[in-house]
Amino acid sequence: MLHFHRTMKILGAISLILAAQLSFAQKPMDIQYVRPGVDFSAYTQVVLHPLDLSKAKVVPPAWAEDKSPKVWNLEGRDIAAVQALYHDAIKAEVEKDARFKVVPFTGPGILEVEVKITSLTPFAAKDEKVMTRGSGEIAVQVEMIDGATGDLLAIIAGDQQVGEKFQQASIDTDRANIAALFKVWGERLLAQLQASQK
Prior knowledge:
Blueprint: H1 2-21, E1 30-34, E2 45-48, E3 57-58, H2 69-72, H3 76-94, E4 101-102, E5 110-122, E6 131-133, E7 136-146, E8 152-162, E9 166-168, H4 171-196
Parallel strand pairs: 2-4, 2-5, 3-5
Antiparallel strand pairs: 1-8, 5-7, 6-9, 7-8
Helix pairs in contact: 1-4, 3-4
């Protein structure tokens, strides 16, 4: 009986991770690790670490004529703006259910979420006036960590399309596409927190 209970707990954790990966993807991502025996129903609060772009490699699109870093690299204000969009969008979605809160501290019952963008390909350079389908592509790695013990619970990774509509490239369309992606992440993260409580 104990073996059956443990098996069901592990299967539950894996199914939650399978579904949770969709909170960070428009297409399937790779589950790289799930801690054996993890019970996600224990988590009702979330710490959102700042979106990590510190090691993101900027890869100009294949069609770019000028691939020099000065044209494509992110500036500090760009990073700060994206980090603020990320935090605000995820927090707003998670807290639509009063059972869950985004908090600035760690401890028991708290799930830490660390999202790292490892590479990004913008489809247009700054101030370039062209039509693009979306704003670009990013490669993402997500780590879920127990807030009390610091134990790594899961790692998922994969690629994301930032926006899907054909549009005139601009700061405003990029911002709207990024915000829409983060909103989807928040909606699906909330759905999986809710599912783990059933």
